Amino acid sequence: MADAEQIVIVGASLAGATAAETLRGEGWNGGIVLIGSEQSLPYERPPLSKDVLLAKKGTESAQLHDQQWYDDNHIDLRLGATVTAIDPAAHTVTLDEGSQVSYSKLLIATGSRVRKLDVPGADLEGVHYLRTAEEAQSLTDAYAAKPRVVVVGAGWIGLEAASAARERGCEVTVVEPQSTALASVLGEEVGEVFAEFHRQHGVQFRFGTGVEGFEGAGKVTGVRLSGGEVLPADLVVVGVGVRPNTELAEAAGIEVATPDNGSGIVTGPDLRSSVADVYAAGDVVRWDHPLYGRPVRVEHWQNAKDTGKTAAKAMLGQDVAHDAIPYFFTDQFDLGMEYAGDIPHGASYHVVFRGDPKSGAYLVFWLADDNHVLAGMHVNLWDTGLDAVRELIRSGKQVDPARLADTSIELSEV
User: Fold this and answer.
1) What angle do CA 372, 373, 378 make, to 5 degrees?
2) Which of 19, 113, 265, 328 could form a disulfide with 280 if both were Cys (CB 3.0 to 4.6 A apart)?
3) Do 104 and 124 fall within a single domain?
């Protein structure tokens, strides 16, 4: 088999592995080279902040397939290898040990990395981040001692880390510069519902304050807040977002959006980049969304799976357009939530609750000024699900907020 018949995937991630699986499923008989910098077999990230942190399962439970599956499907899986350069003209990638691999089509699925806090004491023992399987296992082991935990950041990862810590018997305080939890993704009104839910489970919050540094001699003993207060801490979990790994693409002359314009590798609806035969999938792609008529970038499990599939089909020459409605989910204590939709940055909206949040099972909708549905989520309403929510979003139709809030009216009739 000639190298020219190879599809190379940079990033043995969920998106990358899903693309490889889809290629074989769609009948591609040429070579597939899947390259990943981690030593672990490709895995899913959601279990890391859920069952793994709760010590219910090991990190191996998050693996997509065992090694035999890759062997059986003739996928050349190269772990512990890093691509250092892409040469679009020569159709090659260069690995860190100096070798080159040729491709006929290339998929960049390099994902994202955590944002690090650049403050004094950031390198102290006991300061954890949660992104990789190795980091999840390290944090899981540390929770066993029931330490005093300070979580920096009240986003999804921060709240899931806080939830797991409390369930395992730790004292937990969450520090967040915004006014409440999840304010940037759900808005203050819904975010405060989540904050109160965590308070009821014993989580303490310090909103409206940042972190100036971590204190300790070799090992963290405290977190110094912007107002000067020092919170005692045996362990710190930092969850302040991620950055897409676009540097490799940018160095190769592939168009990349600026951070103030959404970041990510710029593609069309078919996930094809600005350079011939190069595609992108997962956290790193910022594609033109056919439904919304604007660029979108999504950092979640479902998007990695969906874009991996779409990119694979596009590389095989199929006429595809990625129009999936962004989706994510979370599990915290006894709360399970699913969300669908996308609210443009800076857009004005109003919130409609369907059901009482105090009941622990309800729906929430985010409506644009003209009352069409931008997004919706359910909390602990698994029989209802999100199909009706997605239909409302796709329709683009205006709804009556009063009827939307009325639980006696079926969503399909709203």
Assistant:
1) 160
2) 265
3) no
Residues 7, 105 contacting (CB under 8 angstroms): yes
| Number of domains, the chain | 3
> Which residue pairs from 351-359 have beta carbons closer than 8 angstroms and sit at least 24 positions apart in sequence?
351/187, 351/189, 351/190, 352/401, 352/404, 352/405, 353/405, 354/404, 354/405, 354/406, 354/407, 355/381, 355/407, 357/193
At which of 196, 214, 240 does a domain end?
240
Q: What is the pTM of this model?
A: 0.95
pLDDT (0 to 100) of residue 262: 83
Could you tell me the pLDDT band of residue 412, with boundaries at 50, 70 and 90?
Answer: confident
Mean pLDDT across 51-58: 93
Ramachandran assignment for 264, one of left (phi > 0), alpha (psi -120 to 50 degrees), beta (any other): left
pLDDT, tens digit, 9 for 90 and up, residues 168-193: 999 999 999 999 999 999 999 999 99
Distance CA 21, CA 311 (A): 12
User: Which of the listed residues 315, 349, 365 is the one where a domain comes to its end?
Assistant: 315
The secondary structure of the chain in percent helix, strand, coil, rounded to multiples of 5, reads 30, 30, 40
Task: For residues 155 and 160, give the distance between their C-alpha atoms in angstroms, rounded to a whole number.
Answer: 9
